Sequence to fold (128 residues):
Amino acid sequence: QVQLVESGGGLTQAGGSLRLSCAAYGRTLSNYAMGWFRQAPGKERESVAAISWNGGSAYYADSVKGRFTISRDDAKNTVYLQMNSLKPEDTAVYYCAAPSTVVAGPEDLMRNRYLEDWGQGTLVTVSS
Fold:
């Protein structure tokens, strides 16, 4: 079991930027795809971005494509989500998640497959 701890959320104005971090404890993430998800009040959780085990490929929700960038630093056992040009509709609790198997790719995570371990979430609020 791996523990994931998100940080970096906060309040910003529309057009601003934030960088979220997901630090992992108890498992080396270097062989696993990783993903970011979010949930706004009254809405279901949605996939935001996912990255392959080696960082060679990434997938993004259409709503964030071109604005968000997912990356990873295996030396720090950490995954990041750089969020630029933030919009009020981006307001949500953001979670990172790890799959149960190294077989899972980022495309699987974007379809909510193989997801096993979740962080506690970090709140992002974007004002108009």
Summary: The chain has a mean pLDDT of 97. Residues 39 and 45 are 4 Å apart (CA to CA). The two ends are 39 Å apart (CA to CA).
